[in-house]
């Protein structure tokens, strides 16, 4: 019996692949047969992820998305990276944007520079990566784009204006991109998890300086903490041919976030 989530012969690009959801998604996609391109800002961690991938012909590229804003040189560099990724007429079958940074800061302390930094990594980079991905020379028709959003876009917390706004912007952008990609049958969706047990979640707990923060977050979901592997499986579904009826959607595998 054929596995509907088989990713054999698929060529998948994943940002934020050095840890958390991105790392778990890269490993799971490779286990399903995909050839994976890893992208993130920490070369050492990307190499560690690459070593965990079954199969061969995987690649990794270092890219710090914080440097994109107002920097045409860095945007040109990103375009060059896509040229390397798709060298030899090889085209991508999927893109998952897991890159992201958290921000805990009251409005009175939030600077425009910090807001730009968070938006650059969480939202602007998604748009710029998608713009490059959608060039015909870089991607196959019928492929899939996924942005990792957050339940906080619709169930926000105080002090996280920059993070919440960046994820809400992604949710709003996805249907527009989906309509513009429809002629090529390219699916564009968001995944909005709830409380996921990642490095970022631990960092947020430290920023809140609240020892009970993580325990409180765990209790906000009926199923408690989700693991990165749980979200990786949803990503694999949206990358696979099993999800051909899904586009312009925000899927919420949030464990019953309340």
Could you explain the architecture of this structure?
The chain is an alpha/beta fold and 258 residues long. It has one domain (11-251): NAD(P)-binding Rossmann-like Domain (Rossmann fold). It contains eight helices and seven strands; from the N terminus they run βαβαβαβαβαβαααβ. It has a seven-stranded parallel sheet with strand order 3-2-1-4-5-6-7, with helices on both faces. The model has no long low-confidence stretch (mean pLDDT 92).
Descriptive keywords:
about 260 residues, alpha/beta, Rossmann fold, 7-stranded parallel β-sheet
- The helix content, as a percent range, equals 40-55%
CATH architecture: 3-Layer(aba) Sandwich
Content of β-strand: 5-15%
CATH topology description: Rossmann fold
> Which outline best applies?
globular
Largest sheet report: 7 strands, parallel
Number of strands: 7
Count up the domains.
1
| Helical run tally | 8
What is the averaged pLDDT score? 92
- Uncertain segments of ≥5 residues (pLDDT<50)? none
* Distance separating the two termini: 38 Å
- What is the helix/strand order? EHEHEHEHEHEHHHE
Radius of gyration based on Cα positions: 17 Å
CATH superfamily: NAD(P)-binding Rossmann-like Domain
Class derived from helix and strand content = alpha/beta
CATH C-level category: Alpha Beta
Strand order of the largest sheet: 3-2-1-4-5-6-7
Concise synopsis of the structure shown:
This protein is 41% helix and 15% strand. It is built from eight helices and seven strands.
């Amino acid at each position: 019996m054929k596995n509907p989530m088989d990713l054999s012969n698929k060529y998948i690009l994943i940002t934020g692949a050095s840890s958390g959801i991105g790392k778990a998604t890269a490993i799971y996609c490779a286990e399903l047969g995909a050839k994976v391109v890893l992208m993130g800002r920490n070369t050492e961690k990307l190499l560690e992820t690459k070593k965990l991938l079954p199969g061969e012909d995987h690649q990794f590229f270092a890219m710090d998305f914080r440097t994109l804003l107002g920097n045409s040189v860095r945007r040109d560099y990103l375009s060059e990276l896509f040229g390397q990724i798709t060298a030899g007429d090889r085209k991508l079958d999927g893109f998952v944007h897991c890159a992201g940074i958290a921000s805990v800061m009251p409005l009175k302390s939030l600077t425009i520079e910090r807001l730009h930094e968070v938006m650059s990594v969480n939202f602007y980079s998604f748009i710029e990566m998608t713009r490059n991905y959608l060039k015909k020379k870089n991607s196959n028709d019928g492929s899939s784009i996924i942005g990792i959003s957050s339940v906080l876009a619709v169930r926000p917390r105080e002090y996280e204006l920059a993070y919440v706004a960046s994820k809400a912007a992604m949710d709003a952008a996805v249907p527009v991109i989906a309509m513009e990609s429809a002629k090529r049958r390219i699916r564009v969706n968001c995944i909005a998890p709830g409380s996921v047990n990642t490095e970022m979640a631990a960092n947020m707990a430290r920023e809140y300086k609240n020892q009970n923060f993580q325990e409180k977050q765990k209790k906000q979901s009926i199923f408690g903490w989700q693991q990165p592997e749980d979200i990786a499986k949803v990503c694999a579904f949206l990358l696979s041919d099993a999800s051909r009826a899904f586009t312009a959607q925000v899927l919420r595998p949030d464990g019953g976030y309340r």
